[in-house]
Write a structure and sequence with these properties.
Strand order of the largest sheet: 1-2
Distance between the termini: 14 Å
CATH architecture of the largest domain: Orthogonal Bundle
Strand content: 5-15%
Radius of gyration: 19 Å
CATH superfamily of the largest domain: Homeodomain-like
CATH topology of the largest domain: Arc Repressor Mutant, subunit A
Number of domains: 2
Number of strands: 2
């Protein structure tokens, strides 16, 4: 789950099955009591109809937690993390970063850093399209050391300079699920 609507779908399906939950967060649901195999199967079928997937193996769940931590940090948090990405993920997920990085690369085929940078650039695109901040303000907001650093990463990932991107009014942004 990477959006609020996904959470709403999960809550709705849990309620339809009579499953009580404490909380449904992006990527996980904290269910009260035991879930029998029949309920689990029905939940999986219902979620698949909505384009979601029930994850039950630990590696997939951990990869989703890594993705969700990065997405939350980049897209939904305005405060700057006081740790570097590796320390943040290690502390947040209570695992050695080397293990997390190897697992993520094995499952997703890209590094955590590449995933993180793609999301940062997608957020930069959003801020450029909104046209409320200048490039210096965007660089500061997205924790780049300078506009030049932001421009270099932006061009490396998109093939365009931020200024050229801004001129392209019809350039579509990617959904978070497609990154």
């Amino acid at each position: 789950m990477v959006c609020i609507r996904c959470q709403m779908v999960v809550k709705s399906e849990l309620e339809k099955l009579g499953l009580l939950y404490v909380d449904v967060k992006i990527g996980e649901a904290d269910i009260i009591g035991e879930v029998n195999p029949e309920q689990l199967k029905k939940l999986d079928i219902a979620l698949r109809k909505s384009g979601l997937q029930l994850m039950d193996d630990r590696k997939s769940i951990l990869v989703e937690k890594i993705k969700n931590a990065i997405i939350d940090m980049v897209h939904y948090s305005d405060e700057q993390i006081k740790l570097n990405l590796s320390d943040y993920l290690g502390e947040h997920l209570k695992h050695n970063y080397t293990y997390l990085a190897n697992l993520f690369s094995e499952v997703k085929g890209i590094t955590i850093e590449q995933f993180y940078l793609k999301h940062k650039i997608e957020k930069v695109k959003e801020l450029i399209v909104y046209d409320e901040l200048n490039f210096s303000e965007i660089a500061y907001k997205m924790h780049y050391s300078s506009v030049a650093h932001l421009s270099n990463q932006f061009k490396k990932i998109t093939g365009l300079t931020p200024s050229h991107f801004k001129m392209l009014k019809n350039k579509r942004r990617n959904t978070l699920e497609d990154i």
